[in-house]
Batch of 2 targets.
Target 1
Amino acid sequence: MQPFKPVLLEAVGVPDGNTLASYRSRGGYAPLERILREQQPADIIEMVKASKLRGRGGAGFQAGLKWSFLPKDHPGPIYLCVNADESEPGTFNNRILMEDDPHQVLEGTMISAFATRATTAYIYLRYEYPHAWNRLQAAIDECYAAGLLGKNIQGSQFSLDIYLHRGAAAYICGEETGLIESLEGKRAWPRIKPPFPAIEGVFRKPTVVNNVETMACVAQIARRGVDWFTSIGVPADPDNPRDPGSYGPKLYCLSGHVEKPGCYEAPLGITARELIDGFGGGVWKGRRAKAVIPGGISMGLMTEAELDTPLDFKGPGTVGCMGLGTAAVVVIDETVSIVDFLHNSCRFFAHESCGQCTPCREGTSWSLRMLERIRAGKGRLKDLDILLELGNTMGMMPGSTICGLADGAAWPIKNAITKFRNEFEDYIKRTNPEGWMVTDPVPALQIVGAH
Amino acid sequence: MIAHGRRVITDEMVAEIEALAPRYPDRRALVLPALHIVNRELRHVPLDAVVDVAAVLGLPPAEVQDTLTFYQFFHQAKPHGKVRAFVCRSISCALRGGDELLVELCRKHGVEPYGTTEDGSLTLEPAECLGACDFAPCILANDDLLKNLDPDSAAAALEEVKARAAAREDS
Ligand SMILES: Cc1cc2nc3c(=O)[nH]c(=O)nc-3n(C[C@H](O)[C@H](O)[C@H](O)COP(=O)(O)O)c2cc1C
Ligand code: SF4
Ligand code: FES
């Protein structure tokens, strides 16, 4: 592995690294001040477009392109929502950014607001992050006191307020239109798109939703330049004009069965194996990995044989996973039953489905009931086909749901059953020697809680 | 507006809600902040408080109740414990004993998941990923993140949080 100096994580471990003074001593806010003095919003959109920065929240959409969808010459207000709901199992890099370097997140937010002409930014922060809340609020207070937020910032005519808004423990509030509904004081029911938030978002006004790490990247692009950013990562495929490449540093979250869990910064494109062995100290207790989640549980599973896959925006898709997602890598060692893994995944999505779309509401709760039954020694081989059918039919990609939560529920099901079918079959035959071949309908063991 | 006998939210709470109003172009956006303020003080949001919040925000109570019920976070029937402990059961914690941790803590305290001890000192709730998988298995107890737990260290750490919560109550 080439030596790589962390940039996004520069402040981690620095005493008082979360303060304004420390951030300024590292060169922070000088880029913002220069931009306010010398540049126009269109220049910043061009800069972010040229950097080919792709959103870090899961979908990997190009940030500059998303901003350019805002209506031109809109009288305002335009809103910026920073997505700090971070609830994808395995993911914690936003927490570390907000706790250890809140000013980096705020500077990125200010530059993005300037570019998009937003005069109010809401940071939608999940309830479970009280420490991040305190650190961000303290940093926001410092900025108001230093004249970096408020009216007519440093005589530039640019005004901006940043407010923290607290969630209430619901994963779906991370989906951008669920977030918008929640911010408006309603149930976090994702909206049917179009209209996209850039046209009609929060309070029915044009809105940009971006992830916390995306904001930190914007701050670093402004400080270090587009060439620096595009010198890192995996270049676009020259034979595919639609491939925007995977540029820049990325925060990888490593957890589960590794010796050294943690958040590590590396160039996009590091392989799962390099990450696990090079940063994570290997699979714990000298064991082998059975399976590895490449980017949060929604992305599905890679097998041990697929661990040399590069973790850029394209890599996981080449081995049947949904994508890079949040780059949260979870290692599952050889002692874990894949049945238990899938039960855990199905339980999560059954709990978090918002209940609007029938395939998602019913599909997630039935998949959980089936896994409960399999684990209770009443599974049948036919269940695997039914689960696969569920996995193949619920989601935005098959076109049966409003949002991507259902795709995230489907992927672990599809990957687990297709990549580990033998293990499921052995388990079912072993635990249900009398009934594994039965094909009649069977009742559920218990009813899953309604939403 | 629905009249009801018992006003449960205080003038201080109303002032705190109103102080946030300039942040939003629509008072409905104050629903979650208001519920959080009430919940922080009363450790639950009874129906009477829903009616009060609705009156303050100028909304029909049904709209506030509609929002509240979406977030399982807000208890309504009775207050949660002085310490509310969320025990993570999502994948990274489960791989390191999160499910067993919840079972063991519930057994030790004689409660079911989501239940509150009789003395009202502790509520134990299963939680989905707390965003602290680097410290799995972990618990969020009030504002404290308890890290890298096993059943014994978890029980000890919870006692400390309980002692701090009780001390705050006395002061
Ligand atoms: C079910 C679901 C949950 C999501 N949760 C989050 C989240 O917690 N944080 C996040 O930034 N994006 C999340 N997203 C993605 C957002 O919808 C959105 O794409 C993202 O915030 C855009 O920011 P970015 O372009 O900077 O990545 C989620 C999407 C889905 C479908
Ligand atoms: S796909 Fe699921 S979570 Fe998304 S809107 Fe439909 S029911 Fe809700
Ligand atoms: S899985 Fe427990 S904190 Fe993430």
Target 2
Amino acid sequence: MPSLNNLLLILLLPFCSFLLLGLAGRKRLSPLAGILGTTSLFISALLSVHSAWTYFSSTSSHKPEVAWSMNWLQFSDSLSIDMGVLVDPISMMMLVVVTVVSFMVHLYSLGYMKGDERFTTYYAYLSLFTFSMLGLVVSVNLFQIYMFWELVGVSSFLLIGFYYDKPSAVSASKKAFIVTRFADLGFLIGILILGHGAETLDFNTLIARLTDPSSPWLGALSAGSFLGASALTWGLLLVFMGGAGKSAMFPLHIWLPDAMEGPTPVSALIHAATMVVAGVYLVARLFPVFAIACPVALDVVLWTGIISSVFAALIACAQTDIKRVLAYSTMSQIGYMMFALGLSGYGGEAGLGYTASLFHLFTHAFFKALLFLGAGAVIHMVHSNEIKDMGGLRKRMPVTHLAFLIGCLAIAGIPPFAGFFSKEEILTAAYAANPVIYWIALITAGLTAFYMFRLYYLIFWSRESGVSNAHPVDEHHGEGTISMKLPLLLLSVGAVIAGLVPFGNYVSSDGTPLHIHLHIGDAVLPVLIALTGIGIATYFYKTESSKPAKLMQSMRVFYMTLHNKFYIDEIYLFITKNIVFPLIGRPAAWFDKFVIDGTVIAIGRTTDRIAETVRVMQTGRVQDYALFFIASLITLAVFAIYLFH
Amino acid sequence: MTDFLHLLHHELLLSLVIVCMLILKLADRGRSGSSWSNLLNVLLLINFAGGLLIEAEGSLFDGMFRSNALLHFEKNVLSLGLLLVGLLATPYLRNHKHSAEFHILIASTLLGMFFMLSAGHMLLFYVGLELATIPLAALAAFNLNRGESSEAGAKLILSSAFSSAFLLLGISFVYGTCGSLQFEQIALTVSGNPLQLLAFTLVFTGFAFKLSIVPFHFWTADVYQGAPIPVAAYLSVISKAAVTLVFISVLYSVFGALQATWTPYLLITALLTIITGNLFAMRQDNIKRFLAFSSIAQVGFILTGILGANVDSEGIVLYFLLIYLFSNLAAFGVAGLISAATGKESILDYRGLHASNPRLAWTLTIALFSLAGVPPTAGFFGKLFLLTSGASLGNYLFIGIAALNMVVSMYYYLRIVKAMFMETTAQPIGKIPTGVAPAIALALCIAGILVSGLSGSFYEHIHLLTLSY
């Protein structure tokens, strides 16, 4: 058991840094803000690594334990809400991932955000986000996780909309907030269903009650049927809906690419390693319930995951904005984690998918943060997100080039980089569980290698001059400060060695060590496919030529479909505009303006119109008010006397 | 004799304070507005602190007046509210020549509420209600040189006279059919014959009027718009809280036998109230009207809680009222400060407030988050509990609509936050001096929101208190 003080300190340090910077430090602490935030995160990260080390080296069997909890709200005699710290393999692993990546981002931002007039505010938001994410990870019950879940949502809203003078950033943060809030509504209802049925919100008790086939709670929850599914299935599916919203799973993914409007280090933190994997973490947290009590819900997780995975990989092949490629690649990789969970069983060898999924979460955090930070360095230099403004940068940015290459190799699954091991485990699990899934996953892996190397070549090779007319390279910047290069180097090391961690010994579905044997033979095909993907990318993109254009021309329809992200945004638009709209029957003039903001605001506007109609009654004349008063009174009285008696 | 003093100590103390105020006013003519405010705020503080001292249980005047720990607690909450309003009103009263009268009138209404709360008899209840209403009309007209304000006063007095007439008619019918106006007697004899149903409906509308329940709310918008901000705050928070508490005890204990009638009443009116309140709030650009309409929507949620009518409901509503008091007073307080200093009351004027007045902006943000029910502020728990209470009846469709409205309301509360933090304007509001008294009041409100949200002991205390009565 790691020491409780350390665990609490891990959480409190970012929180204190937020309080200090956010409330007191706007002016006074401004030069120190970055140092302060970074230092506190550094200590947090050290403590996390230390705690994880003590935890994993102490015993071999790891059951979830509540290290600390306090009674927070006494809801009624049978239902009270606690706040606490849960210690188990996945929470310890997540503590390390969140604090380490967050520390890297803090460090990197010292250089990246230098000179921004809201520097202090930026660090305050970063600290708040980190604190919320840590609180989410150590939650002991559904309610606590929901609270922090919302806090994560709010702080990411602030970070995505950080450049609030950019209209696109504001609308992106709004979109992210609305889409995830919509999903969170489902999450909340799911929590209420599960909490109501199991009569507890506490994870350990809930899992115990819902996985025991003879328990009355499980019986009650799975007995009834509503629209063809039991209350348990609905509860779990709604909880998964919350997770899918945060993790940008199809079809709730539309906010993720837009969210790239935030500062790039923020994307590395939120959209690579932490918030977007919250959904995976949530499913993993409730995994025994999914696996034992409700395999149907797990199937939904499986198919959502695999569809998102291949779908996003296809779209990523045709994007021209560097961060959007990375965004879709994140979505694809999270889809990987999701379907690995979905095909996993509980306990023993069957639980390989679970271990593999979380292993991939772990390795992905390193190489994806690395890729985002590398992209940040490129953007910092070129002042543009568009691939067409880049090219030939490998000589100008040797460190970034190397780091980015390592990231690409890792994500493509080339041995011995981190991604190879985790992806291999997932594929092994898939092969055992379902050949269809296996082949789709394999194709996705090939696509991943292709689009990542397409990106790599277009940034660092392709055009030899490396200078675009529209965006002359800023020579003063060079590659950025040492504080920007250091995280790249450290994360590169992580992307190389993270795969060597004997993950199965630590994290498994039932808490007992799982020994994983990788067969070289199994790995040949995936690696070959990845190499093919890289080869194709090399052929088309290594030097500037007309080959990609020709290819694009010959597959025009397909390319445009991908480029426009399968027209999903357009489909949403079409549905709202052509189906929802005539039903509500509102004139098109005012509807057009906010279709983009989705249905939620549409409801707002509709009600607005109704309000205007109701307003007519607000005449301002007391006589009229008296008349309405009497009319209502008579209605009520008639209603009471004749209808009810 | 001591019994008498103990049971009536809130009322006696407050009367004493009012008399003191009157004497001070008569004796001194040269005092400035702000020194009056300070002096009278000290009196209100004494009133609040004095109220905390004694707890006694029993009844007086043949059961006409009763008191117990729960009622004492409720009165303490209201006293605290009055103190907060007094503190927040200082900038408004600084240059007003009748600031003493403002305090005297507002304290008188509180006295009326105290009697109303403690009433065990319809007559005492009615007298309390009138005492709580009539001075409010004078207060609504307190901006003496503005036609709008006089209009507000006139409308309030006319409409409330109108609703009082129906209330009295209802009370007469109750007397005619039950043979008594004693609450306990009515509870025993009420059976639900048509005349009693009519009588109940009339009484119900009396409450509905005071609480601005839709469709008896029409007076609200005009009165809030015309009235000075501290008065609007008082009307929408303290006055509503007091009437809500009486409403609960009248429904639960006096007309408990008619639950089959008032459940659909509450269901329909709660729905109308939430939806109408939200619809109007969404359209307002004037912060005062905005807060007024959003508080109508809040009343709808309170009705949802009352609807539950189980053992927890009263505690839940009381808890919510407490949170609502802190949150809404904080919001009104900030709006009042800004209005008193600059005269600006439009939401558009709040753009960029965070840059010039970070403290005020944060205070307003926390208050709005709490009103919107964003976790982890207290308002979230308040709303959650209210909905749970309402859901115990099994009206899931209704609860679903209410929950949806909660999300809608989030949209318009956050709109103001967005204006303050994310938008800019050519003529931003300059740095506003807060002053000591309002700063204390705002700090108390924020502390209240945070403490009652983050610590369960608040709710537990209230819960236990209501369970024992």
